[in-house]
Here is the input.
Amino acid sequence: MTKTRHLTILGSTGSIGESTLDVVARHPGRYQVVALTADRNVEKMFEQCIQFHPPYAVMLDAQSAEQLEDRLHAAGLDTRVLSGIESLEKVASLPEIDTVMAAIVGAAGIRPTLAAARTGKHILLANKETLVMAGRVFMDTLRQHHATLLPIDSEHNAIFQSLPQHFNGDLAGSGVRRILLTASGGPFRTVDLKILETVTPEQACAHPNWVMGRKISVDSATMMNKGLEVIEAHWLFNAEPEKIQVVIHPQSVIHSMVEYIDGSVLAQLGNPDMRTPIAHALSYPERMESGVQSLDMFKVARLDFESPDFKRFPCLRLAYEALAAGGNMPAVLNAANEVAVEVFLAGRIPFTAIPVMIEDVMKSTERRDVPDLEGVLLADLQARATAREWLACNIRQSTGQPGKPASSLSAGQ
Ligand code: NAD
Ligand code: MG
Here is the structure.
């Protein structure tokens, strides 16, 4: 009988959070949910508390926490409801938990994820932004405090599964020639480049293969997601950028591959359903049911591959440049991207302005080393301020209508 794992799920109301709870619910007794956290979705958090009875629930937003507390109290539940970033850090480092699913979206995930690392937890990492912003700081913290990490991102989970079992961070010593990081190419892989100027948030979020949160969906459409994943792979597997080859594979059936020096290429395949990497990481080194259907090879029928086009996907180029520059630049790239995606989703800039804005912010920021979390958070804050200044200068008049480009911005500006 396997020992019961005690879990905190950061970002439980999101796409990864819900998939995690779906897998957990299939294995009664194997996991105990100790804490759930969310930003402000009271309705979903209330339902999750009713189903999983966690001792703690945290809402980032204080008003949402009050509403949740009232509803749980009325329903007769004694869940302790907390609010604020310190409470997120607290539930990520409770002595009674051993495992943390880090599934908050964006830079907001960094402080609680680092708190889990500092207290030696077993971290299941979906929040790739933590590694992008603070790769060195995070990896050093994990080592110092004997915390462990398993990747949830489907590509990195696939790479992990395709590497030797006790991979020690030495790719060359393990006979690895390169990592082949697959990418679907998103919804705009083949559309006319001219059309990109006028695509709407809804079109950008309509991913052909995966159902995900809105931020990562836009990142997939710009391929910034793959850029962030190159940086993530660099830190997770100690891989130099030239050892990471992005391969567009529109079917999203091969989740990534590892090529060895003898010419062998090992891959992990499956339906595009995040419950597979989640179940893998939750039960590692064992295997358990995830609810994912068998892969129907006859239905898949063919597997296609293309090389990525930096002209269509400038965000991918920018991510390679940020990785090569190092220091504060990946955090700057990430922060500028978060602002750009937010204002694109709000209909304030066209899709094609996303890479323009990120590149301008990167160019106007001096490269600096970031030795600690404070340095990373400062780089994030400053890049956001620069991005907002860029917006103030470049949007002469916002249309206020989602999807309609502001008049002064267009592709290539
Ligand atoms: P989502 O938007 O669906 O959910 C985000 C969660 O974080 C929600 O619970 C939300 O309440 C919480 N949250 C948002 N802002 C917050 C803040 N400021 N402070 C605290 N909590 C906050 O996002 P998602 O698609 O589940 O993605 C989560 C993470 O997993 C991201 O880093 C994403 O890149 C990564 N990821 C997601 C997928 C996927 O299939 N969805 C795949 C690979 C990696
Ligand atoms: Mg991924």
Notes: The longest helix spans residues 373-394. Residues 398-413 have pLDDT under 50 and may be disordered. Residues 11-17, 38-39, 41, 60, 103-105, 108, 126-129, 153, 210, 212-213, 215-216, 274 surround nicotinamide-adenine-dinucleotide (ligand 1) (CB under 6 Å). The first strand starts at residue 5 and ends at 10.
